[in-house]
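Here's what a typical entry looks like (Kinesin-associated protein 3b):
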Amino acid sequence: QPNMTAGSLDVHPTEKALVVHYEVEASILGEGGGHVLGERKEGQKIIRVKSLSPSTDVGALARKVVEECKLIPSSRLPQVEQLLYYLQNRKSSPVEGKSQSCHCFYTLALNEEASITRVDEYIELLYEGIPEKIRGSALILQLARNPDNLEELLHNEAALGALARVLREDWKQSVELATIIIYIFFCFSSFAQFHGVVSHYKIGALCMSVVEHELKRHDVWREELRKKNKSAPENGSLRRDQDKAVRKYHGLLSKQEQLLRVSLYLLLNLAEDTRTELKMRNKNIVGLLVKVLERDDEELLVLVVSFLKKLSIFLENKNDMAEVDTVERLARLVPCDHEDLLNLTLRLLLNLSFDSGLRAKMVEVGLLPKLTALLGDENNRQVAMRILYHISIDDRFKGMFVYTDCIPQLMQMLYEHGEEETEAELISICINLAANKRNAQLMCEGNGLKMLMKRALKMKDCLLMKMIRNISQHDGPTKSVFIDYVGDLAAEIRAEEEEEWVLECLGTLANLTIPDLDWELVLKEYNLVPYLKDRLKPGSAEDDLILEVVIMIGTVSMDDACAAMLAKSGIIPALIELLNAQQEDDEFVCQIVYVFYQMVFHQATRDVIIKDTQAPAYLIDLMHDKNAEIRKVCDNTLDIIAEYDEEWGRKIQSEKFRFHNNQWLEMVESRQADESEPYLYDNDNDNDRTDLFYSADGITPADGSVSPDFFNDLQPQNGDLLHTGDGNDVFDQTSSSPGRPATAYGFRPDEQPFYQYS
């Protein structure tokens, strides 16, 4: 006795019809009433609703459908009504109403029930005309869509061989036929164990050819349409012909996109094998996919972007994407109404954003404000923020965030986190953006800095303090805002605190080169001198913390009273010891030399440096260092020492002479070795200018005397202060008194860029 069970309910893909899937179970009962033999069979029933129009009462029609179709239970009335509403609003296909042979393959597959026992009959149809081939392949497709039939079809070599032959020979003659046969092989490609049979018949290579050919056909169609648009008048028969051509174009486009979709799905399945993927790459799969990005069909775009995303994890494919207009074509999809398409596009852009050139292209095509706008989208916020983070790594683009509303949004997110742990993506991008001066100013607007500082100190959040540290490095009005927090920061500089936390707090303090700040009072009140001195010992802490201590000493030494206090505490010998230990690290050397420069700049500490330490001797050793920044600070420091101490002045000049003389001798020897150039110079009077060869630097007289006027541009005559004439003495800020050397903070050669999210 047969028993029918209703299954899924769906809309017909091309007609105004509902498709009801059902299952028939037939069983034979034995004498005792038990089941002796049973068989299950799936079927489909098509319910056409040709009367459906924009004015139709969908509710009444749904009730009528449920009443007349016994397969649909009354409980599914809301679903029927929803599907009818969808059909009512769906754009009609340009091919509706044509003959059966020109319909999409779904129509043929659904109108006749296929049986696995009749496969040989369907194969015979493949040897006839195109309409018969379409019918035969459509019936085989109906079988292939049921995974239970794939194993039996796999063993029917005649069927698969015939299908492959027809596809090779006739795919250009009929889009419907090509779509159906590729769909059959797609069913096999959905299971890894059947990939072998698809490869055996070279269906993947054939699909590549199909896609390439169809894309070229599309270009031809568009060009023809463009020419007709250009020649057609506003009205008349030519305009009617043009309208007809447009309708025909859309009909062809709809069929072609079905073919492209099934072909690319099959290729995507086969690309699970990296060797097959490599073959596709060699046949320019990336170029073909990127060209399809021009289309408007959202389902096709979802497939293409998914495929590109899979390919983008390999460097070679990413490089191929960089050579074509991938980013430009993806940019138009951001934002879009299709949620899946938007999310996939963003994830593909994230993969591409690891490439600096592609990041630049993203900014160039205007993605920055679009991505910023997505920060308010809960579903896409995280991936958008990760792309923005990658863009923020590049100093070229940090300043461009000012022209979006990104920073206010980020600050609002930080505020909303309250006492919860901040997301890694959020704080990462904030840290990077804070390295730009204008961004830092925006972050400090209103109560921005107050909120950041309060939260960082309360939570002892190292990453948030790293962001504050970046803000504090910028000269201008931003720096003066930190005066209110000097005490809070200084209170955190304690041995019992975590080193990472102390590093960020100390780094922030060290950035505060504010003339009005009384550093002597700060050091005394918070008893920082013993801590600083203790941390100067090599190995007492991580190198980053020790370096920050040196920078801090250089900052506070701008204050003459503070410099004197540090000199008396014995910090200079500790710095020399550290210099010996870290002489291979240019960053350490440069910052320690800068401390010496600050010490000799003040009269109160100059004598201590010159007479009580060996600092000048170390500076002489470093005056010809290969690092330009070290040479610059050394020269400035030694020039001051040379003016105020004659003995050291002679030693410095002698060393400069020795260095220049050695260079001269090496140059002469190299010239003499070259017999083709017997003369070093032309015979002119320059050879008589011995002062160029024997003076310390080509400017100072050769007799070793140094006029005090020579140093007038280097520093004020009193050695400490510059008289402004209004009764207020300030530190000299001329070009001869350089600021603190730029630190390598954030760019240490032994560290990777901050990148914490998984």
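The beta strands are 2-11, 17-29, 35-48, 722-723, 729-730.

More examples are in the samples folder.
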